[in-house]
Amino acid sequence: MLAPQADRVMALGEWEERWQEERTGFHQPHVHKMLENNIDKVLAGRTGVRFFFPLCGKAVDMKWLADMGHSVVGVEISEKAIKQFFEENNLTYSEEPVPAIPGAKVYKSSEKNISLYQCDLYNFSSSIEGQFGAIWDRGSLVAINPRDREKYTALIISLMAEDCRYLLDTLLYNPELYKGPPFFVPDEQMHSLFGNSCDIELVHSVDALTDRQRGWGLDYLTENVHLITLKSS
């Protein structure tokens, strides 16, 4: 089932173009239901949790969490997406270079504990911002090039603090019918990627087929949400 998409590649410039041309049907103007529905599982009674958002776009989920007293670090290639996030949420921000990542910039909210790094995700590491107590991955693992999944998994695991609770949103559909992105990530592959280091719990599974995906030619679409935690060593 992985074969149809195995060689699909989206260059970073293509994602930047999508933001420039506002071809961002993946952006949601409201807090994602799967995050809302599972926030208690992610927080597990903790306050002031540090959240990581890989490929964050301008997700309103980031402000929602910051308003609740958590801190947010995101990574995004599109400068336009980052600036729109601050402007659309009426947040003032500063902009500064990141010495450890040539060419990167970090945008920091003045009022809220939100820092968004404009750089290639794979140039980011725990040496920049340490490790995180939570990760919300919606539209990230399903957006990266399928051939990069091992590299991506290694990065994510390296960013997980011991008590990290990683909420991962994946999509199941027939990859013969649609080339992606978002890409098809079967449960078996997710378990092979994360299973050695992590415990994986399916917390939600819903039929997510809408007219938008029917327009892609799909006949079914299942959205699965997993809670991933490091195995206690």
UniProtKB/TrEMBL annotation:
Signal peptide: none annotated. Keywords: Cytoplasm, Methyltransferase, S-adenosyl-L-methionine, Transferase. It comes from Seriola lalandi dorsalis. SUPFAM superfamilies: S-adenosyl-L-methionine-dependent methyltransferases. This is thiopurine S-methyltransferase. It is found in: Cytoplasm. Belongs to the class I-like SAM-binding methyltransferase superfamily. TPMT family. InterPro entries: SAM-dependent_MTases_sf, Thiopurine_S-MeTrfase, TPMT. GO terms for biological process: methylation. The keyword Secreted does not apply. It catalyses: S-adenosyl-L-methionine + a thiopurine = S-adenosyl-L-homocysteine + a thiopurine S-methylether. Its EC number is 2.1.1.67. GO terms for molecular function: thiopurine S-methyltransferase activity. Its main location: cytoplasm. Pfam families: TPMT (PF05724). GO terms for cellular component: cytoplasm. The keyword Glycosyltransferase does not apply. It comes from the Eukaryota.
